[in-house]
Amino acid sequence: MEWSIETVEGATIGCPQGRVDEESWELFLARMNETILAAAAAGHRFVLDLARLDYMSSRGLRALTIAKREADVHGVPMALARPNDRLREILAISRYDKIFPVTASRDVAD
Amino acid sequence: MLVRFWGTRGSLPVAARAATIERKVARALVAAGGRTFADEDEALAYIAAESDFAAARTYGGATTCVEIEGGDGSFVICDMGSGLRELGVDAFARCAAGKPREFHFFLSHLHWDHIMGFPFFGPAFDPNARIVIHAGHADAEEALRRQQEEISFPVPFDGLRAAIEFRTLVPDHTYEIGGLKVRTIPQYHSHTSYAYRFEDGDKAVCFSTDAEHRVDDMDNERLFEAFFRDADLCICDTMYSLAESVTMKADWGHSSNIVAVDLCQAAGARRLALFHHEPTYSDEDIERMHRETIRFEELNRGERPKLEVLCAYDGLEVAL
């Protein structure tokens, strides 16, 4: 899994790329937590841009929960943006779309 | 091996109300579209061909009780939920036909819904029956005696006529019981619960109910992947959605369909039985969860072999 960060007005955007699975979920979580801290320092919201993520196992989904707890501790709103069709379906089956805002565009994720 | 599900509901027995049955009958009549049936068998064949399970059937409402046939022919029974009463009635008929009156119970844990069937288990009153109760808990006998104290039940435990003994099992040990190889592993649940793995020759069944796989201890799942390794059937706690299990119902000691699929796929298991259904779920809710789990398995499979996803119901039999 690769990770990059972008900043736009009011938002720090984490951009994972590749796969989040049994081997990479801990790195995924560490990168999210670092980015949440950066968002908190900047007074931004945190947007996880899923557009270039090919696969996410249930451990990746559950890492999102841990990251959300970290975001809540720091008062950082967290949203998921641009999941591919497959991931959008998994977010619905797991009901994660009930606990995270999920948007088709990074711009409207707040 | 043959696995029979006598009770599949979690937490509390439930029963379909009159309005639920009326609705099923009405929908079946509408679906039949005026078709006529010569007799009941023809009508049953029509229903059997109906793909929508919830339309004409129910998943049932008895709490946890699963029978595993195999080994030396003695009864092997996981948990004593309310489904045990009916198993007891059926056991009398099988014993009358010559089956040995030897019963090996394996208790996941001692919560009410997992032991409430024992005071109604007919063979416990049979002086010719032998009952061995295996548990990871050293206080299993205390729990069973306590639920038959006078304040809770009219017949005391000592009024049971069968020869009853208790054995405490420990993890990391393989036992030979009832002609099966048996192992156990502790699970996260209030007062701890235990999963069991039963092997008969080259066949294996894992029974893992009332098990939470916590987000803050995901490394622990490697133990379960090893425990489920290459099993022919894994019976797993799928009481909640993943979102529920990590938010408002975190620490409630239960798991989700998503985690069950992940564990079974990683373990190379052949079949998963969704189990310990939420008591507030209707048949339609459970069927929807089954459909979604089949779809998730497909989405999550990658290059791995297909994992068959079954949805347990009271009366289901799975031959391995």
UniProtKB/TrEMBL annotation, chain A:
Coiled-coil intervals: none
Residue ranges crossing the lipid bilayer per the database entry: none
Instruction: Give the STAS domain ranges.
Output: 1-110
Give GO MF terms, alphabetically: anti-sigma factor antagonist activity
Please give the InterPro entries that the UniProt record associates with this protein.
STAS_dom (IPR002645), STAS_dom_sf (IPR036513)
The name on file for this protein is: Anti-sigma B factor antagonist/stage II sporulation protein AA (Anti-sigma F factor antagonist)
UniProtKB/TrEMBL annotation, chain B:
* Record InterPro entries: Metallo-B-lactamas, RibonucZ/Hydroxyglut_hydro
Q: Which domain of life is it from?
A: Bacteria
Q: Which SMART domains match?
A: Lactamase_B
Chain segments annotated as transmembrane = none
Q: A Pfam family for this UniProt protein?
A: Lactamase_B_2
Which positions fall inside the Metallo-beta-lactamase domain?
Answer: 62-254
This chain belongs to the protein called: Phosphoribosyl 1,2-cyclic phosphodiesterase
Organismal lineage = Bacteria, Pseudomonadati, Pseudomonadota, Alphaproteobacteria, Sphingomonadales
